[in-house]
Amino acid sequence: MYEQNSKIVRVTFFFEDKDFALPKSPLADDAARQIAEYFLGKRKKFDIPLSFDKNTPFRRKVYSNLLKIPYGKTATYKELAVMTGNPNASRAVGGALNKNPLLILVPCHRIVGSDGNLTGFAGGVDKKRFLIELEKNNNL
Q1: Most buried by CB count within 10 Å: which residue of 67, 82, 107, 113?
Q2: Which residue among the candidates 108, 111, 131, 132 is catalytic per the annotation?
């Protein structure tokens, strides 16, 4: 987890560097707590300040619209493209999701193929399936 100007700018699943130490700050601690609560099924929304500033305007629009997809629900790449104002941008939406710097907090795992199949995810389709099932099981 990385922060800049009192906002979270990046969350990752894995750390390549085994000597990596999570930065210590009240914001990082709060973000870590909220993510842990999410995985325990106790949190459905995050209230952490996020920054998309280092992304293109199109990606910022995609990420902002991802935040509108409710916990436990999914949408298609096409539906997200429509939400961003360009119904023909499904592939571009997929490209933006592939670069999502705020995994979990900006729920790109909620986007599925037009046939409902799980496609693409930075952490792998198995993790995407896990996250979708976690939300469905805790959304009763």
Answers
A1: 107
A2: 108
Check the CA dihedral 44-50-55-59 and report its sign.
positive
pTM, whole model, 2 decimals?
0.84
Judged by DSSP in three states, 7 sits in: strand
**Residues 118 and 112: beta-carbon distance below 8 Å:** yes
What own/partner pairs with CB < 8 Å and gap ≥ 24 does 33-36 have?
35/11, 35/104, 35/105
Which tops the pLDDT comparison, 135 or 13?
135
Give the pLDDT band of residue 117 (cuts 50, 70, 90): confident
50 is catalytic: no
Burial class (CB in 10 A: 0-12, 13-18, 19+), 102: buried
Contact 32, 26 (CB under 8 A): no
Residues 20 and 28: beta-carbon distance below 8 Å:
no
